[in-house]
Amino acid sequence: MIYYSKLKVNVTRLTLFFTKLFAVVMASVLAVFALPGQASAQSLIRDTEIEETLRAYTNPFIRAAGLNTASVDLYLVNDRSLNAFVTRGQNIFIHTGIILEAKTPNQLKGVIAHEVGHIAGGHLVRRDRSNRSAYGAMLIAAGIGIAAILAGEGQAGAAILGGAQQFGMIEVLAYSRITEASTDQAAAKYLEATGQSGKGLVQFFEKFRYQEVLSNARRNPYFRGHPLSSDRIDKLREITGNSEYSDVKDTDAEIHALAMAKAKLIGFIDAPQTVFSKFPASDQSKPARYARAVANYRAADLHNALKEINSLIAEEPDNAYFYELKGQMLYESGKGGRAIAPLRQAVVLKPSAPLLEIALGQALIEQDTPESIDEAIKHLKSALRKENTNGFAWYQLSQGYDRKKEPALARYAIAEQAFAVHDYQRARSFAARAQEGLMYYPTHQRRASDIIVIADTQLARKKNRRH
């Protein structure tokens, strides 16, 4: 038996979200990676359904800007304030507050097009850390801490981010009114190129025109970093008003997808009683039932939670996210055996979503039968072909190999997990221990050797920096 106590993924979550490690990998139940020990730190959300909705908005703009969609990463920040920003490395961060505030998909698209404009324009400079209050979420992206968090190592990521405090400067966006105006023009160009209206962005800015007269401390975070002015709004209205696509409307499918995403966020973020007030039982719309399903589940009312989600499944039997949420409810309620069927169906309906496969893999490993372990390993390996730096998936794979009494492969998986979060000491240790047992797995053996070489190089650099 391999000892994993020091290697277990230790993720601290907001208490309103989840109570078990399973939540870390649930694609559409808002797995939250909170940063322990930092009261002001934000947390990231992984949610396949919402990520896919935002990707559908974002990718056309990325292509219109002449960028590679695979090179631009999109992250959700669990923060009700209005903010969106980009960092070096072509990363776009969107606060949940922006999503909840958007009245139409077109408004949200406009904000995203604007952020793509900042990436294309290279509007990144250094700003003193005193601005961290306006860009608190930037802590998430500091150094390799973000890699640790996204790979499932909340504790490691928090430690790394904590160490980053020794630096007097961090990467943030410093926008002037000139760059903002030029980025507005870029956003309008991308909207035009993709056949979409720019009215949404104008409407979003109009809603906050009063921000111009407020002191910086009283402004919403988004407008601290994106200076707003009446002249800027008027110019943007003129540009977008002349577009032949000015009157293009959002499709019914886009409107529904955003409504469902907002309902899911509200279900997980707000207190259950607040959710029930916003979405009373008399409201039988799909978003209302979705929000109540989540709220009932969080309130430990499994009966009513299943009643709501089953009604949605009956109407949309091909919706993978409904099955996934049902699996989450059952698993979290101690009914792991019953969770497998809906999770399997979710994977059948959306085989391209690695987080769904990881969730199913974990549930199968818990069943601990030879058949369930083999199936779990199959799904976890498939997920890792799509997200090969997902530390939690590597950890679960190590558990599967350990149950199969394959210690070399288990140690190799732990080495990959450690490598994914830049824990080079641990990665080297487990890669070295795994090597001698990998003679029948030449690909893994070569990879273990690579991990050792890279880890040695990184450890040497770290040692040199200390001297």
Task: Characterise this structure.
The protein has 467 residues and is mainly alpha-helical. It has a domain at 34-241: Zincin-like (2-Layer Sandwich). Helices cover 58% and strands 6% of the residues. It is built from 21 helices and seven strands. Strands 1-2-3-5-4 form a five-stranded mixed sheet. Strand 4 (84-87) and strand 5 form a beta hairpin. Helix 6 runs parallel beside helix 9 and helix 7 (199-207) runs antiparallel to helix 9. The protein is globular.
Portion in helices = 55-70%
Characterize the overall form.
Answer: globular
Cα distance, first to last residue? 39 Å
Order of helices and strands: EEHEEEHHEHHEHHHHHHHHHHHHHHHH
Tally of separate helices: 21
Total beta-strand segments = 7
> C-alpha Rg, in Å?
23 Å
Could you give me the name of the CATH homologous superfamily of the domain at 34-241?
Metalloproteases ("zincins"), catalytic domain
Average pLDDT score: 81
Note the beta-strand portion.
Answer: 5-15%
